[in-house]
Design goal:
Blueprint: E1 2-6, H1 9-17, H2 20-23, E2 26-31, H3 42-52, E3 56-58, E4 71-75, E5 88-93, E6 101-102, H4 105-112, E7 116-123, E8 133-140, H5 147-170, E9 187-188, H6 204-213, E10 221-225, E11 228-238, E12 251-255, E13 258-262, E14 267-274
Parallel strand pairs: 1-2, 1-4, 2-3, 4-5, 6-9
Antiparallel strand pairs: 5-7, 7-8, 10-11, 11-14, 12-13, 13-14
Helix pairs in contact: 1-5, 4-6
């Protein structure tokens, strides 16, 4: 039997699409919550469990020692789960391991401009995301791309991986176990509130990718204007012009009624600007400097 630990859209998508014969392998669903997400899909997941008559528990109440499952499967899970004797812990990581071990790998991949993104199922071990690989799936993407669209593509990869894992378990077949290559290891660092802020000294393409990677369901890329925190949810590249006294962060002109901001290299037009509460915001003056 399998206990599934789920947080967010991807886990909900997987469970929603599992075939009936695979649902019968689920012993319990553990619900994760994240107040920083616009929608963590916890309520939708609870409704689904009730509809399908599948047992579920909140993360705070789950006791691993009481579980009869042979496998713990983690989908979008952000908390450390202590491995118990006789139970295999399977983690699905949002990268093509061993690339981007660690935190927020999908956001990192999008900011870096990766053309190929993917998901990897591994057996959890004592090291961060270093366990043997069970399955790996990938998809090619094109820019610009919003984080929500990338998550939807990733959810499909999650589903394909989980479906194959469930199929192997249901047939009593061993799961693949392939060691990761030590030569190709890289890491994605944890992110906090400061990482949402834009460095206008960077090139415009990277800044637009940062804006798109931090959009909904996340809290949005941020900048300061006269001491106020503003959120940017959408921006477009604008052809650069020759600027002798180039000052990143300054508005140079308006285009289609939207402010065009100077970057270290290139220009961007902000098309969705909001205040800290999420309300639409219009810069009160033309001579605006974003920091």
């Amino acid at each position: 039997m399998i206990t599934i630990f789920s947080l967010g859209y991807k886990g909900f998508f997987v469970l929603q699409n599992l075939a009936n014969e695979h649902r019968s392998l689920i012993d319990c669903v553990v619900i994760g919550r994240d107040k920083n997400l616009k929608n963590d899909f916890s309520e939708e997941l609870i409704d689904w469990c009730k509809e399908k008559e599948i047992p579920y528990e909140e993360r705070s109440k789950f006791q691993a020692s009481n579980s009869k499952s042979d496998f713990f499967l983690l989908l979008g899970w952000r908390w450390i789960l202590e491995k118990k004797e006789g139970k295999e812990v399977i983690v699905i990581h949002d990268s093509l391991l061993p690339k981007y071990r660690g935190f927020n790998p999908l956001v990192t991949a999008l900011i870096e401009g990766d053309k190929l993104i993917g998901a990897t199922a591994i057996f959890a071990n004592a090291e961060v995301d270093a366990g043997d690989i069970i399955l790996q799936k990938s998809v090619t993407i094109a820019y610009p791309i919003k984080i929500q669209e990338a998550m939807e593509k990733m959810a499909v990869l999650y589903f394909e991986i989980v479906r194959e894992i469930f199929s192997l378990i249901s047939k009593g077949k061993p799961l693949p176990c392939i060691p990761q290559s030590d030569q190709d290891v890289s890491f994605s660092l944890w992110r906090d509130e400061l990482d949402y802020f834009i460095d206008w000294n960077l090139d415009s393409e990277r800044i637009v990718r940062q804006i798109d990677a931090n959009g909904e369901p996340y809290a949005g890329a941020r900048t300061y204007f006269e001491g106020k925190v503003l959120k940017i949810f959408d921006a477009k590249l604008v052809e650069d012009v020759k600027i002798f006294n180039r000052t990143p962060g300054k508005v140079i002109f308006k285009k289609e009624g939207n402010p065009v901001v100077v970057c270290g290299k290139g220009l961007i037009m902000i098309t969705d600007l909001r205040d800290e509460l999420g309300n639409p915001y219009i810069l009160p003056k033309f001579r605006a400097r974003l920091t």
